[in-house]
Design a protein that fits this description.
Helix content: 25-40%
Oligomer: single chain
Number of strands: 9
Strand content: 15-25%
Structural class: alpha/beta
Strand order of the largest sheet: 3-4-5-6-7-8-9
Bound molecules: NADP nicotinamide-adenine-dinucleotide phosphate
């Protein structure tokens, strides 16, 4: 699997794992079978993944706690990317909260739960319309200056917001929704690719109608002996060298299936056909 170097010093395999789906229903509370979730996390690492995305809000706290319980002490080279900046008031609710003092408390909580002295990649989960973006990023910069955060990323940003963030801190990754059927972040992706910033497309498997029987993905998948989901991931990997998909799953079978997408090389015609099908 080819690699990407985040922030000039964190080399990761380009297909990572999103640890949002190992919590309870509505990304709320513990999963039904925490032992199984921890087995899955160990399998993620055994299969060679060295980029795991999480957030304090997944559970809340559940995803980070499970990661530490399953994987600490962490193997060399494992990058755990976490986020702060959302509150959780109930299942399915994600209000934004980017107040500097709260972001600092969130980061301290993540450090404690993940049992780390420094977080490799700390991402602002989303800009808070009530707080100037610069103020939120200054808080992350202070955490970085204190040695609590190695690199800073942003999430759910427009091109203009990315520019404002980069005026305050060295942004090394962007995490925006992006997949075959949702390409609203093309411009942001372009800026990331141009400037060596990693791009995490969240919701990478939302293939929607494309996966329907007889649809363009379905037909190509059968011709390639692959699944539609694998083609959606292979297309993302082919789309840009900055692309770092983090598909989420609670199933070991799906995990293995997703990781096998890294071995699928699409030719230009297939990339074109998949891309235009969206
Ligand atoms: N920054 C943000 O605002 C934000 C928002 C959302 C997510 N994220 C991050 O992005 C990661 C990925 O996003 P996501 O989990 O929402 O979307 P996703 O990876 O596109 O889809 C996950 C869903 O697809 C299913 N799935 C996974 N592999 C499959 C396969 N091979 N075949 C069939 N179904 C499969 C999973 O169910 P099973 O468990 O049954 O496999 C799960 O319901 C998250 O884990 C999280 O780390 C970030």
């Amino acid at each position: 699997m080819d690699t990407f170097t985040i922030g000039g010093d964190l080399e990761v395999r380009r297909l990572g794992y999103g640890a949002m789906r190992i919590t309870g229903e509505g990304i709320w509370g513990p999963p039904d079978d925490p032992a199984q979730a921890k087995r899955l996390l160990r399998r993620v690492v055994d299969l060679g993944v060295n980029l795991i995305d999480t957030a304090d809000s997944y559970g809340p706290e559940v995803s980070e706690n499970l990661i530490a319980e399953a994987l600490h002490p962490y193997p060399d080279g494992l990058v755990i990317a976490t986020k702060g900046g959302l509150r959780r008031d109930g299942p399915g609710q994600w209000p934004r909260d980017g107040r500097p003092e709260r972001l600092k408390r969130c980061c301290e909580g993540s450090l404690r739960r993940l049992r780390l002295e420094r977080i490799d990649l700390y991402q602002l989960h989303a800009p808070d319309p009530q707080v100037p973006l610069e103020d939120s990023l200054w808080a992350l910069k202070e955490l970085q200056d204190e040695g609590k955060v190695r690199h800073i990323g942003v999430s759910n940003v427009s091109l203009a917001e990315l520019g404002r963030a980069r005026a305050v801190v060295d942004v090394v990754t962007v995490q925006n929704r992006y997949n075959l059927t949702d390409r609203h972040s093309e411009e942001v992706l372009g800026a990331c690719e141009r400037d060596g910033i990693g791009f995490f497309p969240w919701f990478p498997l939302a293939t929607g109608d494309l996966a329907r029987p007889g649809g363009p993905l379905d037909e190509l998948a059968r011709a390639r002996g692959a699944t539609p989901g694998q083609l959606a991931l292979a297309w993302l990997l082919a789309r840009s060298p900055a692309m770092l998909p983090i598909p989420g799953t609670a199933s070991e079978q799906h995990l293995e299936e997703n990781l096998a997408a890294a071995d699928i090389e699409l030719d230009e015609a297939e990339i074109e056909r998949l891309g235009s099908a969206a």
